[in-house]
Amino acid sequence: xxxxxxxxxxxxxxxxxxxxxxxxxxxxxxxxxxxxxxxxxxxxxxxxxxxxxxxxxxxxxxxxxxxxxxxxxxxxxxxxxxxxxxxxxxxxxxxxxxxxxxxxxxxxxxxxxxxxxxxxxxxxxxxxxxxxxxxxxxxxxxxxxxxxxxxxxxxxxxxxxxxxxxxxxxxxxxxxxxxx
Length: 180
Fold this sequence. Notes:
Elements lengths: L4 H21 L1 H9 L40 H9 L12 H10 L8 H8 L1 H15 L10 E2 L1 H14 L10 E2 L3
Antiparallel strand pairs: 1-2
């Protein structure tokens, strides 16, 4: 096939336009993912620790039961519940002698189980001050005086006077008791 120089020029220009529009359409980010240029690190919350494989001492392996859970399978939800509820000893059983000695030297073996409550009690003043600062930022318009208490005797008197004069119950200001 004999192609003139002019036709070849237009063919190359059209191919470049198609390639440019393809790159623009699928964005450079998608193109980088497609070509494998962009690093894809694993999601740290989806990485699951599996129990190590072990063989029984007599090497007589039983065939697996269809539909049964793995022998070393630990349900992550149950494991998390045990840890959060304090029913699990944690990794204490898996510690080597060196790790135990290091933790004992650092004073980490005899920890206070109620440390969170102790810290909250000691820093309670700061937490109240911080929450007031945040409340001032979020609710900048100021609250109505919530410490006002309506005087029931004076309010009943005001309502009786409004009823006698034919005024609505919302007419007039409610008498309040002011704290000193």
